[in-house]
Amino acid sequence: MSKKGKQEKFIEIGTLPNVFQSHEVHSPNLIAANGEIKIMKGHWKEYFGNDNPITIELACGKGEYAVGLARMYPERNFIGMDLKGNRLWKGAVEAQRDGLKNVAFIRSQIDFITQYFAPREVSEIWITFADPQLTKARKRLTSPFFLPRYREVLKTGGLVHLKTDSPELYEYTLETVKEEKLSLQFSNDNIYAQEKQMPEWSIKTFYEQMHLSKGLSIKYLRFEI
Ligand SMILES: C[S@@+](CC[C@H](N)C(=O)[O-])C[C@H]1O[C@@H](n2cnc3c(N)ncnc32)[C@H](O)[C@@H]1O
């Protein structure tokens, strides 16, 4: 992949058919390729051309999970979501190049997730190496601010996966799951030291690779809403 600057990447994502960008707060309108305005809420099955289950990767950055899971599970659909267009450019270009029809991206704030998905349109959520937001609990992607939004878009029994290097975010999420009386399915604070590996853990994001190179342990938990 050629080296491109932020500006070039920004222009290019505006031309990609697998990228939808928000341009106004409090509106479900998304800008699709070449400036077309679309409402995707409740219409993802038309975009994908099937009714396969949808998994969203939140704070997707370069979209390693969205793209990696799309390769791993061709019978499912994946949507990466992040505010930073120059990051999700990488996943979007890679998915286009490799002809992956089951992956798309939304450039917007996760806070407005209910504007882009209808109630129960989503089956699973992955949160990958989100900022722990040590001083602003409300901004943590597993805070009680975000959980009702996830509950609205997820199917009954929908799953939330969290993969993180942050002991604070991991412990905070365990505590929140308990306080909110959600069902914790699995948790481990050093997953690669475990004998039994989940196939999904083989996907390593950009930030994860940085944390691993510093010898940090990676934590994972999964709960049901
Ligand atoms: C530490 S990076 C992790 C990126 C990627 N998942 C990885 O592991 O390489 C956190 C990402 O979360 C995004 N982010 C944080 N809060 C967000 C929000 N409320 N809405 C959209 N994106 C957000 C940032 O733009 C950033 O790309």
Q: Could you characterize the architecture of this molecule?
A:
It is built from 7 helices and 10 strands. The N and C termini lie far apart (39 Å). Helix 1 (6-13) crosses helix 4 (85-97). A hairpin with a 6-residue loop joins strand 1 and strand 2. Strands 3-2-1-6-5-4-7-8-10-9 form a 10-stranded mixed β-sheet, with helices on both faces. It has a single domain (6-224), classed as 3-Layer(aba) Sandwich (Rossmann fold). By secondary structure, it is an alpha/beta fold. The model has no long low-confidence stretch (mean pLDDT 97). The chain binds S-adenosylmethionine. S-adenosylmethionine is lined by residues 59-61, 82-84, 87, 109-111, 128-131, 205-208.
* CATH architecture classification: 3-Layer(aba) Sandwich
- What kind of sheet is the major sheet? 10 strands, mixed
Proportion in helices? 25-40%
Structural class: alpha/beta
Structural shape? globular
CATH class: Alpha Beta
Q: What's the overall average pLDDT, rounded?
A: 97
Order of adjacent strands in the largest pleated sheet: 3-2-1-6-5-4-7-8-10-9
Briefly note the CATH topology name. Answer: Rossmann fold
Separate helix tally: 7
Count of separate structural domains: 1
Question: Strand portion, in percent?
Answer: 15-25%
